[in-house]
Amino acid sequence: MNANSEKGNMWRSVEAKERQKYEVEKASPNEFPAAVTELIEKGFNYSLDRKKFLTIMGASLSMAGINCAKQPAEKIVPYVFRPPEAQPGIPVHYATARVNHQGVLPILVKAREGKPIKIDGHDEHPVSKGAMTADGFAGIWELYDPDRLKTSAEKTSADFSDIDTATAIAKAVEIVKGASNVRVLSRASYSPSEKKAKSSFLRARGSRTQVVYDAGGNQAQLFAGEAKSYGSAIIPQYRFDKADLIVSIGADFLGTWITPEVYTKQHSSRRNPDKNMNRLVVAETMMSLTGANADTRFPISAGTHLVFALGLAKQLLSGSAYANNASVKKAVAPYTAEKTAAITGVDATQIKSIAKELKKKKGKSLVVAGGTNTLDGDLGSIQVVANLINSILGNDGKTIEHNVPLLEKGDFSSPAELAKLIDDMKNGNVDVLILDRANPVFDLPAESGIREAIKNVKNVIAIADHKDESASEANLVIAASHYLESWNDGYSSGVYSVAQPVIRPLFDTQSVGEIWLQLAGLDSNYYNFIKDDNAGSYLTGSLNIAFEKALSDGFFVARRGGSSSSRKFKAGALSSIKAPTEANSGLTLTLYESVQIGDGINGNNSYRHELPDPITKICWENFVAVSKADAQSNGWRLGDLLEVSREGRSIKAPIYIQPGLKDGSVALAIGYGHESIGSVGDGVGANAWTLAGFSKNGSTFDGLSVEIKKVESGYRTATTQRHHDMHGRGLVRHAPLSDYKENPKAGSIEHDLHLPGRGLYPVHDYSILAEGKGTYKWGMAIDLSKCTGCSACVISCYSENNIPVTGKDEVWRGREMSWMRIDRYFEGEIENPTAHFAPVMCQHCENAPCENVCPTNATQHSPEGLNDMAYNRCIGTRYCSDNCPFKVRRFNWFEQWEGKIADPAQYALNPDVTVRGRGVIEKCSFCVQRINEQRQMAKSEGRKIEEKDLKTACQQGCPADAIVFGDIGNKETMARAQWDLERGYRMLDEVNVHPRVKYLTRIINQG
Amino acid sequence: MKGKALKIGIPIFLLGGLIWAMMGNYPYAQIGYGPKQPVEYSHKKHAGDFNMDCQYCHTGVTTGKKAGVPSINICMNCHVSVGFKEDMFTPLDKLQPLHDKWDAGESPQWVRIHNMPDHVRFSHAPHVNSLSKPGEPTKEVCKTCHGDVASMEVVEQVESLNMGFCVSCHKEKRETHDTRMNCSTCHY
User: Which residues of B touch A942 (CB under 8 A)?
Assistant: First the structure.
């Protein structure tokens, strides 16, 4: 099957496939005065007579003249004492870590003139190896969020009044001192020091004081499942790099599950078709990033993840060590292949064949299950079944390492404890409730009654960074610092991380560790507390020296893991499992976490909202994903606003017709629908927690029976999926592994060159690129076998290149500014299509069509093969954009920065990249600022640029190592090696443009 | 009709051009720009009479983008012991502002003279390193763009530093210094 878009069966959207038409509405932008807007809107139909034209023309000309003025005087203010490392213009990198409820993310922060401007992965870290996610990169804008709490606040009568943070903490201490029943509700923490400071507060008040909950549920579920199956609550190390066959049941490990950056790195290291390529099989409801990357994907009905797992276990059971175990037999007995097929909607033969494959890969396979989208009201149940399967297959101890776990000692409370706390609150039995960076009013299921319960608490103290939904209910809000402003430490995967502040707190805030130290009445500063009271238990050798080293390295390896013996699976854990025995009737909802917003804790970051969802390409909103058949049978069309209701609660969200979704299943993302987090996040999307279920055994996110009705039509959803369309020309190529082994050029299409050897213009002369003259031939190779479409590169590019966010309206008009986009294609039948991704940025064509048409020579070719763009020459005719076959040029329709950017957001801008004004075209420059910086350095030192020193932002951001950039004129570079692979092809090469970006055909391992 | 347009139009055009030029917009307006600085620092004395190397103060010139205006601790390396009146205690009048700033822990706000527009990127290091010859004082290289600063009491701009100035040099030295001429050399 060499199916390519050339043959017309690859498509980017349902509308394109169905040729549906939907209405286009108009909205007025607000930057231009009304009359001008009218003029633009009316276009050439506007009755403009000669006189009027001359009037406007003359006025414009004289206005243009007034604009000129003498160069303004600038001041230079040098240091009084210059620290030797602080040389103006030269960046300083700090190794630190983001330690939050998600775990520990080792990062490298680039600071210019004392201001952090970019977050990158920490290459030297033994576990992460520099891997990052879009989520990690987005942290820089959260530091400079203008809506962050600038100081603490106290509620007197109805309104908040600002007080300084030191006073607020003193007041909190007073409140807590006099109170008898103090409770703490918090998110998880992976900082040993933070936990220790907090525990000395808690110790005085009894062990049940604190309740820790998990809003998205991924981690709590894993901890609970591990405790049930093996006795200890840990998150083991899943080694995707060691598994030949990976089966994921709902777990979106490439997108949102636990540590997607690490898993992506591991997984992609095995996506090399020339060397033991792995195979990924995914069974899930909503198409996740993992599902989109699967070699084989089974769409299953909502609420049946557990059934699929049990059905698979039954197939594997015979002949295994657990074959005669009564509890195991009893648990899986009802789920014969046929029964499982009937409930989940997968073919019985497919279940059998996957089981057969797994049996062949004993000890070399990995079955993962879980995630927000699998929470069925019994926390950890699906984990137990996944663990059973891994134990049957002997994977435990081999592809699952548990001697040095990823996260140990999860401090999550059981769902029953959370339910009890809410009951206590409701009954007025809680005097003081301290919220530690928790926003339960927003991110607990509405069914829990938290919204009403919190009103019955006398004193609510919130430690928060925004005046969010829960903090608004508080009497006292203590402003917490961002992680780039705080000292902290973290422990994960046996690695102890020291997190250092990169900037002093921008506002009157304190780090959470500091706040807890003061609440606990400990007289110490947090830095000393970390170093003297905690670091010693992880570091070896002289504390001072070891701590300094850990600080400069960012981490210290305290324990090293590896393969270990298998654990004994407690089959008794299966006895309490209740899975559906019938197929769903009616519409069933599954809630999932999205790649860009996650659990919504950083919902006020416009970059997160602007980043299109990797699968649906929708931004600025969550949506109700339904299958095409359901949409048709109910008469729903794109552009409808649907009301989803369950047990008296309802939300409204626009429809999206999701390919690969089972009929009868509906999906919706959590994390959206903030009411009070800031000017960006408020009112974006709908809060899906409204519909989630809540019980003593755990929250329900999957298999919720819902009713849906259409409430409105003509609703506008901003989606980039049809923007910058290249009209299907064999752009994404792929081939099965078996074909590739016979023919390394499999999947490629040989085109006849349009007018071979002839162009309108003379061929660009690169002959001056004689070897040894310090010149280079820049090129890039993107391996589509490795690329997962996770969009980390896109956000990294936004951060590096000062790309503005435009907002929902503008995205809807197709005016998003992202220099690189990830094209997502579907192929095959709408019921279960294959998804393909292709990152597309400026291809730096050797025969660039954009250059010829520029009337001002603003875009020119460099002898090294870069397609240069001089912004100050650009007059905004947009001919280049029109002539670009790849549609990668972006036009600034509005002024995005001057007068638009709120303090302190301007500090996130990269001073090495020009900030573009209105009326100018911009595009990917291959990070020419990085090239030039390295070139200048190399030139001063009289050498050539070394490949290891130069990475483009997207290359650096790619956790899958799919992007390689470098000097393709030099035979020794990695870039050249990739460039020369036979798998490579260039997009639209047949039109004689000769791009400098090569794509490597995606190879799919169909088993 | 035609004559009237010419009679009125041409003078208005010329007058406009004159006003435009007087407002400081003609390409060479910056030449001779030497504003008053908060401390009356004399390059003539330091770089000329004392023959100090430029790099004593402008430390970043071979390693970074910016040459760097010195932090005051560099001034104070000497001026804790030199530049006092006969009582050996009171600073000279010219140096009083420097001492005031130093005592207050602040920096003087120097007025920038050589100011590149924001869309131009210039890095000192590659230029200075590739132009300097062994054994020659740094100022011989600096002269290329900054003129003979060692003879200036108050520093002023001597070259236009416009695009033509940059390009002509890059063109001239193409054979000997591997200079680059494309847009992204300076604009990105």
Answer: 129
How many Cβ atoms are within 10 Å of A9's Cβ, its own excluded? 15
CB B44 within 8 A of CB A52: no
Nearest CA-CA distance, residue B65 and chain A, Å: 6
Q: How far is A486 from chain B (nearest CA, A)?
A: 27
Q: How far is CA A777 from CA A766, A797, A924, A948, in A?
A: 9, 22, 17, 16
Rounded Cα–Cα distance for residues A705 and A422 (Å): 25
Helix, strand, or coil (residue A139): helix
Chain centroid to CA A708 = 29
User: What is the rounded CA–CA span in Å between residue A964 and residue A785?
Assistant: 13
Residue A910, classed as helix, strand or coil, is: coil
Q: Give the closest residue to A383 by CA, choosing from A215, A226, A580, A577.
A: A226
Confidence (pTM): 0.90
Listed by number, the residues of chain B in 127-156 with a beta carbon closer than 8 Å to a beta carbon of chain A are: 129-130
User: Could you tell me if A888 and A841 are in contact, meaning their C-beta atoms sit under 8 angstroms apart?
Assistant: yes
pLDDT number for residue A23 = 30
- For the stretch A570-602, pLDDT in tens is 988 888 888 888 888 889 999 999 999 999 999
Chain B nearest C-alpha distance from A68 (Å): 7
Orientation of helix B124-131 relative to helix A928-940, angle to 10°: 30
- For residue B40, the distance in angstroms to the closest alpha carbon of chain A comes to 15
Polymer length in residues for chain A:
1007
Interface contact flag, A89 B20, Cβ < 8 Å: no
CA distance A946 to B70: 32
Residue with tokens 């919902």: A603
Binary contact (B23, A71; C-beta < 8 A): no
Q: Verify whether the Cβ–Cβ distance A74 to B115 is below 8 Å.
A: yes
Q: How far is residue A674's CA from residue A686's CA, in Å, rounded to a whole number? A: 8
Using pLDDT thresholds of 50, 70 and 90, give the confidence band for residue A180: confident
**Per-residue confidence (pLDDT) for residue A109, from 0 to 100:** 96
Contact criterion met (CB < 8 Å) for A65 and B20:
yes
Instruction: Look at strands A984-985 and A997-1000 and give their pairing.
Output: antiparallel
Q: Which of residues 19-58 of B touch A (CB under 8 A)?
A: 20, 23-25, 29-30, 35
Return the pLDDT at A22: 35
B174/A contact by beta carbon, under 8 A: no
A3 has a pLDDT exceeding 50 = no
Of the candidates A860, A861, A914, the beta carbon closest to that of B188 is on A914
CA distances from A27 to A24, A313, A716 (A): 10, 55, 11
Nearest CB neighbour to B183, from listed A89, A775, A868? A868
Rounded Cα distance between A430 and A432, Å, is 6
* Rounded distance between C-alpha atoms, residue A845 and residue A859, angstroms: 12
Identify which of B63, B107, B184 has the shortest CB distance to residue A866.
B184
pLDDT tens track for A512-564: 999 999 999 988 899 999 999 999 999 998 999 999 999 999 999 998 877 78
Token pair recorded at residue A249: 């049941």
Instruction: Tell me whether residues A89 and B60 touch, CB distance under 8 A.
Output: yes
Residue-wise pLDDT for B132-157, tens only, equals: 888 888 889 999 999 999 999 999 99
Q: Do A89 and B64 touch (CB under 8 A)?
A: yes
Residues of B in contact with A78 (CB under 8 A): 68-72, 107, 110
Burial class for A1004, CB neighbours closer than 10 Å (0-12, 13-18, 19+): buried
A875: Cβ contacts below 8 Å, ≥ 6 apart: A855, A856, A858, A919
CB A80 to CB B184 under 8 A? no
Give the integer Cα–Cα distance in Å for A530 and A551. Answer: 12
